[in-house]
From TrEMBL, chains A, B:
EC code(s) of this entry: 4.2.1.51
Organism annotation: Peribacillus glennii
Protein name: Prephenate dehydratase
Marked site (Essential for prephenate dehydratase activity) residue numbers: T177
Catalytic activity from the UniProt record: prephenate + H(+) = 3-phenylpyruvate + CO2 + H2O
Length: 298, 298
C-alpha cells in the first residue's frame, strides 16, 4: 500500500519527522494548520493525516481534540510517540566560534522548551516567534547575511542546509510528543521504522446533564473490569462553563466482551459514548540516522 | 481595605472588566503576561493578582494552571465568572454605514469566537492578531486615517473612544470566562458588584506512580462522602508523557470533617494532595452600565 499523507507542515517539522518514521516511502502533503490536515482526509485529497495530539510539557493539543470531536468524523488509526530534541543552528557562513546572533527564531513552544539554555548561554538576545520550528530554519537559510539563528530539529537543519552548533539544547530530556494517524480506513504499517508498543482504544464520553458523581460511576465501569486507563482528559463541551466531555485511553485493543460491556454500562447510566479508534501504538526509541531520512525525502 | 491589583493588561481587557466588578475602587497595575501578574504578588509589588483560568470554549488557561502548580505558591482567594461579549468597533471618524475595513484587528481567541459573523458579514477581509483585544482597540484609536476595525469589549470602546457599530458579534451567547484572585492573605469583597454564588475548594492531586485505577479510588473518596465535584482537569506533570496531576473543584467551603477526611484517605492511597484554595465564587449576571464603570476608571 502506498498512501498520500497530509501532515502539519511545512517540510521538516516534528510532525514531518514522525511521518518519516511511520511512512518512510509515502507521498507527503504539507498543510498550514491542523484542521486543514483533517479536512484533506475528509475531502479525499489525502488518504490519511498525521497531527500532534499531546506533548509531555504542554499537555493536549486542544485544536486537535476539539476539531476531532466537534468538526470531523475520522477514526484514530494509529499513534506514534517521538522524543522532542531541539538544536541551535545557524547559516553555515556563520558557523564560527565567535558568532553571536542578534535574534533567535523559533516556535514559541520550542523557545519555552529551551528556556534554561537561552537564559544561561544567550541571555538578553531577543527571541522571535515563527509559525513552526521549520519556518525558523527556512528563514535563517534565506538570509545568510543577517546575524540570526534558529532553534529546530535535525531534519530542518538537513533540509535547509544549516549548521547545528549546539545540539540538544532542550531543558527536559524526557520531552515527547504523541502524534495520531487519522484515516477513514485501516492503515498498514509495513515499512514503519518505529517500535510497536501494543494497542490502544480511545473513547469520548459525555456525562449526563446532572453529572455530580457520574465520572466516578464511569471510572467504576472500567475499574471492575480491570481495564487500564492510560489517560483521562476533560475538554469543554462549548455549551457553557462546567460542561465537559472526557477522552479516555484504554491500554488494549477493542475486544468483543470487556470494552463493549463497559460502553453498554455507560450508556445505561445516561452517558453518550463514541469510539474514536482502536489502533496500534508506536514509539521512536532512538534517533535514526538523519542523513538517511533526508536522502529518502529528496 | 484598599488593594493594589496586578491584572492581565493592558487597560480594558476582559480581565480588567472582571477586576472592575470585583474591586471597583482599588488601584490596578496592568501586567504584560500571566506569570508577571503572579510574580508581582510573590514579590510584594501587588496585594493580589486577577488572571483568567478557564474559558467555556477554549478550556483551561494552561499557563495559569501550570505556573500556579509548578512555579509559585499563591492560594486562590476568589473566583469570578463573567460573560464574554465581543463587539465590532471603528474610529468615530469611520462611523458611517458604508465603511468597510481593509483589516480587522483582535486577539486570536476573539477572532475565533466571531468566526460566523466574520464569515457571513465580512468574508475575505483579513484578520490580524494582536496580543489582547484592548491592544486592537488602541491600535484603531491611534490610526484614524486607516481603514481598520477592532473586535473588543465595551470597556475598550469606552477607554479608547471608539464607536461600536455592531454589538454582540460573538457566535456563542453562553461564552464565559472564569478568573481567579490570587493572594497571600484573605481578601475582603466589600464593594463587589457581582453576585455571590457560594464557595469552592480547589485541590491538586498527584497520583502514585503506578496509577492504574488510582483515579477511580480518588473519586471514590469524594463520592462516598457526597462531596460534589464541579470540575476535574488533568495537566501534565512535565516528567514524561502519561504522568498527570489533577485539579479538582469541590462545590463547598473547606470544612473540618469531610474534605480533611477525603484528603487523609487520598494520602493513605499514596497520593500527594495540595489545597490550592477555599474561596467565594462570584458571577456577573448582567452588564453594568459601561459609562459608570468607565467614569470610575478615570
Amino acid at each position: 500500500m502506498s498512501y498520500s499523507i497530509a501532515f502539519l507542515g511545512p517540510k521538516a517539522t516534528f510532525t514531518d519527522l514522525a511521518v518519516s518514521r511511520l511512512f518512510p516511502d509515502d507521498a507527503k502533503i504539507p498543510m498550514a494548520t491542523i484542521p486543514e490536515c483533517m479536512d484533506a482526509v475528509v475531502d479525499g485529497q489525502a488518504d490519511l493525516a498525521v497531527v500532534p495530539i499531546e506533548n509531555a510539557l504542554e499537555g493536549s493539543v486542544n485544536i486537535t481534540l476539539d476539531y476531532l470531536v466537534h468538526e470531523v468524523n475520522l477514526p484514530i488509526s494509529g499513534e506514534i510517540i517521538t522524543p522532542i530534541q531541539q538544536h541551535f543552528m545557524v547559516h553555515p557562513d556563520n558557523d564560527i566560534p565567535s558568532f553571536v546572533p542578534d535574534v533567535i527564531y523559533s516556535h514559541s513552544h520550542a523557545i519555552a522548551q529551551c528556556h534554561k539554555f537561552l537564559h544561561k548561554e544567550l541571555r538578553g538576545i531577543p527571541c522571535e516567534n515563527t509559525t513552526s520550528t521549520a519556518a525558523a530554519a527556512q528563514l535563517v537559510m534565506e538570509q545568510p547575511g543577517k546575524k540570526i539563528a534558529a532553534i529546530a530539529n535535525e531534519l530542518a537543519a538537513a533540509e535547509y542546509g544549516l549548521a547545528i552548533t549546539r545540539p540538544n539544547i532542550h531543558d527536559f530530556s524526557h520531552n515527547h510528543t504523541k502524534f495520531v494517524v487519522l484515516s477513514k480506513s485501516d492503515i498498514q504499517y509495513e515499512n514503519c521504522l518505529a517500535t510497536r508498543r501494543g494497542d490502544k482504544t480511545t473513547l469520548m464520553v459525555m456525562l449526563p446533564a446532572d453529572h455530580s458523581g457520574a465520572l466516578h460511576q464511569v471510572l467504576s465501569a472500567f475499574a471492575w473490569r480491570k481495564l487500564n486507563l492510560s489517560k483521562i482528559e476533560s475538554r469543554p463541551m462549548k455549551t457553557g462553563l462546567g460542561n465537559y466531555f472526557f477522552i479516555i485511553d484504554l491500554e488494549m485493543k477493542m475486544d468483543e466482551v470487556l470494552i463493549p460491556g463497559a460502553i453498554s454500562e455507560l450508556e445505561a447510566l445516561g452517558c453518550n459514548v463514541t469510539l474514536l479508534g482502536s489502533y496500534p501504538s508506536f514509539m521512536v526509541e532512538k534517533s535514526v540516522d538523519i542523513a538517511e531520512i533526508h536522502s529518502k525525502m529528496m
